[in-house]
Structures are given as C-alpha cells and as structure tokens.
Amino acid sequence: MPTLYSFKQKDVLCSALGKYVKRASRESIKARGRFTIALSGGSLPSQLAQGIVEDESIEWDKWFVFFADERAVPLNDHDSNYRLAEDALFSKVPIPRDQIFAIDQNFLNDTQELADVYEKDLVRVFAAKETVKIPAFDCMLLGVGPDGHTCSLFPNHELLRENIAWVSPIEDSPKPPPRRITLTLTVVTHAHNIAFVAAGQSKQDILVKVLETPDEGLPASLVNQMGGDRVTWFVDDEASKLTVFPKKEFKL
Q1: What is the CATH number of the domain that holds 232?
Q2: Collapsed DSSP state (helix, strand, coil) of residue 121
Q3: Glucosamine/galactosamine-6-phosphate isomerase domain spans which residues (predicted)?
Q4: Considering its fold, how many domains does the chain have in total?
C-alpha cells in the first residue's frame, strides 16, 4: 500500500521530498556505492532542488541521473525536461556531467532510435558487468497529470503493455509535444523507491481517482499497485483536500 504525506505549505513539501531523496541517496551509496535516480519534468526538478541544493553532505559525485521521460526536442528547448533540470538543479550542484544522461540530439527525427540509444545508456550503467533483465533505480521521481498519466505513459495506451523494452518511443502523446520517449511501466515500478509529487487544486480530482479507485487502470494507479509500499506520495493539503485515503505524519 502506498504512503501518503500531505503538507500545509509547498515549501514544507519540498523540504520533506529533499529529506526523502537524501536518505535514499545515502542508503544507496552505502549499499551499492552509487545513487541512480530518474527525474520527471514539470515543476518537479525545482521542487527537488528547493529541498537539496544547499545540503553539503550529499555525495553528488556518486549520483547517476536519468530522465523518466523526455520530449524529442533539442536540449535547450523550453519543452525539454533536461533544460528544466539543468536550470533548476544541475547548474547548482556538482554532479559529474558524464553521469547526467540526456537524450542524444542526433536522433530527434527518429523516436525509435532515440529510445534505443537511451536504453543503451541504461545498459551501460545497470548491466555493464552482468545480465540484468530490468534496471532497478534507487529512486524514481514522478508527477501525475490530470488524466492520471505519469512519465509519458498515458491511459489506455498500448505502451502500458510493453514488458520487454526499458525505453519506448511514443509518437502520439495526447499532451504536446506528441513525440517523446519514456521509461516503460516495468522499469518505473521496479525502482527501490518511487515518489509522486502533486500540489495544488488542479490535482484534487485525480488524486481521488488514483488513490481511491485503482481499478480504473490509470497509469499512476498501476504504479501504486505494482510498486506497493515502495511508493510514496508527497502532496500539499490543497491537492489532498478531497481524498479520504489515509495520510501519515512525515517522520525521517
């Protein structure tokens, strides 16, 4: 069962998210010598940055950063998730640049090749020395759309049934821009720690659906079901106003 934390103020939410990620980083580095994290776009990079950029105890040199999904646009484009993360986070912390994995701009016109090349980056990090069927990220940070999508996994889309590829292309995203790549549901739900972040009134209705009516099969609901107690929701009180899903007190 997922854990739901709700906070009165967004800055308190960001602080709690930062503590959650810092703990995951610390534990992962102790256990495996590195920290692998997948980021979504939107407001999430800035929310994460607000909670961690000032912390000098973080071992940034052991971070390996991927994107949960990305748009097939240049890295300096306003629609680029990389650009959002660069502006909010990467430019402010000393993560080695060769440990931040952006899409290869040489393949923007071919989303299948774009996905295949990105998957090779995952193979190099997760399966360089042994056979790995599914990469296990230490932390997966996700948002949720008003239709219940997460990453670029949309309701009723055929990509939800993909169980072989680690990274898949999508040409018909219902949310612009239409051409993207995304981690598959199998990879997303295999992470050691999975966190959703949702804030504001616009998230009220979808939180009720995702948390209280999981049989609808929305992508975010599927992550809840498949991830179980590895899934944590960080929301503000405005977003959680309508849900009766049990809230827990944040302690870390």
Answers
A1: 3.40.50.1360
A2: helix
A3: 9-233
A4: 1
CA 128 to each of CA 65, 112, 125, 154: distance values in angstroms, whole numbers, following the listed order: 17, 22, 6, 31
Q: Terminus-to-terminus CA distance in the chain, angstroms?
A: 19
Q: Is residue 250 part of a domain?
A: no
Does a structural domain hold residue 164?
A: yes
Q: How many CB atoms lie within 10 A of CB 169?
A: 20
CA distance 16 to 247: 14
DSSP class of 6: E
Whole-number Å distance between alpha carbons of 150 and 185? 9
Q: Is residue 249 assigned to a domain?
A: no
If we measure between CA atoms, which residue out of 80, 75, 28, 67 comes closest to residue 167? 67
> Is 55 inside any structural domain?
yes
Give the 3-state secondary structure percentages of the chain, helix then strand then coil, rounded to 5.
40, 15, 40
- The boundaries of the domain holding residue 22 are 3-236
CA distances 205 to 53, 209, 238, Å, are 32, 7, 11
Residues constituting the chain = 252
Residue 141 three-state SS: strand
**Contact call for residues 120 and 18 (beta carbons, < 8 A):** no
**Closest C-alpha to 146, from 134, 154, 135:** 154
pLDDT in tens, the chain (252 residues): 899 999 999 999 999 999 999 999 999 999 999 999 999 998 999 999 999 998 889 999 999 999 999 999 999 999 999 999 999 999 999 999 999 999 999 999 999 999 999 999 999 999 876 678 899 999 999 999 999 999 999 999 999 999 999 999 999 999 999 999 999 999 999 999 999 999 999 999 999 999 998 777 899 999 999 999 999 999 999 999 999 999 999 987
185: number of CA atoms within 13 Å, CB side? 24
